[in-house]
Design goal:
Chain B: InterPro entries: Aromatic_CoA_ox/epox, Ferritin-like, Ferritin-like_SF, PaaA, PaaA_PaaC. The complex is a heterotrimer of chains A (251), B (312) and C (94). Chain B has 312 residues and is an all-alpha fold. Chain B is built from eleven helices and two strands. Chain B has helices at residues 3-15, 28-53, 62-87, 93-102, 119-136, 145-173, 177-196, 208-213, 221-239, 264-274, 278-311, and strands spanning 249-251, 256-258. Chain B has a two-stranded antiparallel ribbon. Chain C has one domain (7-84): Phenylacetic acid degradation B (Ubiquitin-like (UB roll)). The N and C termini of chain C lie far apart (65 Å). Classes of the chains: A mainly alpha (251), B mainly alpha (312), C alpha+beta (94). Chain A binds chain C through residues 33-36, 38-39, 42, 135, 138-139, 142, 146, and chain C through 5, 26-29, 32-33, 36-37, 39-41, 44.
Chain lengths: 251, 312, 94
């Protein structure tokens, strides 16, 4: 491996994309209305596409003729570096929307900053992904507002989702050594700067949605270091089943 | 204008292949038949999402996962186009869905079979979509404009579905013993239900004659079924798979394959609710609809609030 | 209360310089959502660069019963078309 740190850094975002894409794919066929079923799968497809671009690059860095699928299908949970937020189960539509919003507000500013990465490959993946994510953030923010300021029931449901997810929103902006090394080396993103923009966006949208911002400051963490919730094991059991049951086959 | 005269003009248009449009006069029976046929088709698309969606999270590579997801999403789109076509006839999508949920409306019985292995994703794309295309292409010339236009869009998008299915089968058939077995097993289970997709034999098909007259059906069930068998057998040979029909053989005289008797008892059983997954499929659709009610209400309520604010 | 989202007619410009063309319809709670839904439903294969949405109920259509009086009169006015005028062949382009 030529650059272990860059490899780890790329996997953090690749795994976020894959796991959230996988979660959203669970909605396919079960959305609240056809139009939104399609919207959800569009986002899922974008995320899986982003994951592939990152995995392909990471696999090249890893060498040893590894592929995107080796990285997605043949690592166990402790090798995954996604945040706990994205592995949370879908819950109701409101919960999915809030999880998406808390992720989009990160990824949008993350890609915006990553476009200036000293690593050209990362910068170009970021440029493509940023356009997609801008749309995701518009979609999820609109829904947060719509549900928050909709009916009493929708307000309560989405407030409940916000309360439950609040302690999962910050892990993604807490620096790991991969983050700080990447920043120092010039190809990474400053999470501190990003957090400021992100928090302002979150606050503005939640206010427009008439939701009350939870007071807690505690943050769950561990995902970025490979220590996950119980959910990830089941996600991987699904995701990796065929590759594990029939090793070495072409599909 | 008298009804007789209107009907005469309508029939002239049909004979001259002039499309009927939503605001044109049409016989009530034509309208009802169209609603039944188009909504059945729409229901088939959205129920048909379920057996395949069952394998999206387990797709064996990222490339396959993206293709499977895009494919099932297309089916949601096709359902949407078709419901929209139906709505031009003066019914609302919600009413059509209510009929689906209550069991009053039918959908293609093939989606009441389970997807048991990854190879089923291949078999469905290859056989079920293959059969569907055969049914659907002639409908691009259906006499009712919005239906024909929806079908043009559907067929255009559908073209990658069968290819991706066949590619899955091909990869499995070139793979390990276990993979070949998986592929053969899928063909064994999906072959006969695919033939049933064309509906009862012409002798037993109660709607065929009138629908052909009206130009909303272009070929009979048996014609399409024969065509499907004829093009599919060589495809199975390329895969090296055995079609599970001992009576299957090329008939030089007819220039077609002869094939065995379809188990119509099974067909009518599945249609009337006794298929392996009928209840599961409808329950899943109902649940999605019911769970989504508060979301749809919230969006309405928010839209109303916003509209009021604009006025004020 | 469980009422359908209203129906919208969708018009898409497939590339710069072309007219918006009717492509179909869909349901949405409001205009903003209709645009987003149209983007998600009708431009998945790169079919468009611009979207118009109009709530179906706002469309006024001509009555097919009036077709004769509306459209027949235009049929015999050949002088509106360039081919009506006989010009010598030597005049290559006009």
């Amino acid at each position: 491996m030529t650059d272990q740190n860059k490899f780890d850094y790329i996997l953090q975002q690749a795994d976020n994309c894959l796991i959230l894409g996988q979660r959203l794919a669970e909605w396919c066929g079960h959305g609240p209305i056809l139009e939104q079923d399609i919207a959800l799968t569009n986002i899922s497809l974008d995320l899986i596409g982003q994951a592939r671009l990152f995995y392909q690059y990471a696999a090249e860095i890893q060498g040893e003729e590894k592929t995107e699928d080796d990285l997605a299908y043949l690592r166990d949970a402790w090798g995954f570096k996604n945040v706990l937020l994205v592995e949370q189960p879908n819950g109701d539509f409101g919960f999915t929307i809030m999880r998406q919003f808390l992720y989009d507000t990160f990824s949008c500013y993350f890609y915006e900053a990553l476009m200036s990465s000293s690593d050209e490959r990362l910068a170009s993946i970021a440029a493509k992904s940023h356009k997609e994510t801008l749309y995701h953030m518009k979609w999820s923010a609109d829904w947060v507002i719509r549900l928050g300021d909709g009916t009493v029931e929708s307000h309560n449901r989405v407030q409940q989702a916000l309360n439950e997810l609040w302690s999962y929103k910050d892990e993604i902006v807490i620096e790991t050594s991969a983050d700080s090394d990447a920043l120092a080396a010039g190809y990474g993103v400053s999470l501190a700067e990003l957090k400021e923009k992100r928090d302002a966006k979150i606050t503005a949208v939640l206010e427009e949605a008439t939701l009350s911002i939870p007071e807690g400051t505690y943050s769950h963490k561990g995902g970025k270091e490979g220590v996950h919730s119980e959910h990830l094991g089941y996600i991987l059991a699904d995701l990796q089943f065929l590759q594990r049951a029939y090793p070495g086959n072409e599909w | 204008m008298s009804t007789e005269l209107l009907e005469q003009k309508f029939n002239e248009k049909i004979d001259q292949e002039v499309r009927i449009e939503p605001k044109d006069w049409m016989p009530e029976k034509y309208r009802k038949t169209l609603i039944r046929q188009i909504s059945q088709h729409a229901h088939s698309e959205i129920v048909g999402m379920l057996p395949e969606a069952n394998w999206i999270t387990r797709a064996p590579s990222l490339r396959r996962k993206a293709a499977a997801l895009a494919k099932v999403q297309d089916e949601a789109g096709h359902g949407l186009y078709l419901y929209s076509a139906c709505e031009t006839l003066g019914v609302e999508r919600d009413d059509l869905l209510a009929d689906l949920h209550s069991g009053k409306a039918k959908y293609s019985s093939i989606f009441n079979y389970p997807t048991l292995s990854w190879a089923d994703m291949g078999a469905i794309g290859w056989l079920v979509d293959g059969a569907a295309i055969m049914n659907q292409v002639p409908l691009c010339r259906a006499s009712y404009g919005p239906y024909a236009r929806a079908m043009v869009r559907v067929c255009k998008e559908e073209s990658f579905h069968q290819r991706q299915g066949y590619e899955i089968m091909l990869t499995l058939c070139k793979g390990s013993e276990a993979q070949k077995k998986m592929a053969q097993d899928a063909l064994n289970r999906w072959w006969w239900p695919s033939l049933m997709m064309f509906g009862p034999t012409d002798a037993d098909s109660k709607h065929t004659e009138q629908s052909m007259r009206w130009g909303i059906k272009r070929f009979t069930n048996d014609e399409l079924r024969q065509k499907f068998v004829d093009v599919t057998i060589p495809q199975a040979e390329i895969l090296g798979l055995t079609v599970p029909d001992k009576d299957l053989k090329w008939n030089e005289e007819r220039g077609h394959y002869d094939f065995g008797e379809i188990n119509w008892e099974e067909f009518f059983n599945v249609i009337s609710g006794n298929g392996p997954c009928n209840k599961q499929r409808i329950d899943a659709r109902k649940k999605a609809y019911d769970d989504g009610a508060w979301v749809r209400e919230a969006a309405n309520a928010y839209a109303e609030k916003k509209a009021k604010k604009k006025v004020a | 209360m469980n009422k359908n989202w209203p129906l919208w007619e969708i018009f898409i410009r497939s590339k710069a310089g072309l007219n918006h063309k009717h492509v179909g319809s869909l349901h949405a709670a409001d205009a903003d959502m209709a645009v987003q839904n149209a983007r998600d439903v009708y431009t998945r294969r790169n079919e468009g660069v611009s979207i118009w949405v109009v709530e179906t109920k706002h469309i006024t259509a001509s009555d097919p019963d009036d077709s004769d009086q509306m459209y027949e009169p235009a049929k015999d006015k050949a002088y509106r078309h360039p081919t009506f005028y006989d010009l010598p062949d030597e005049l290559k382009h006009m």
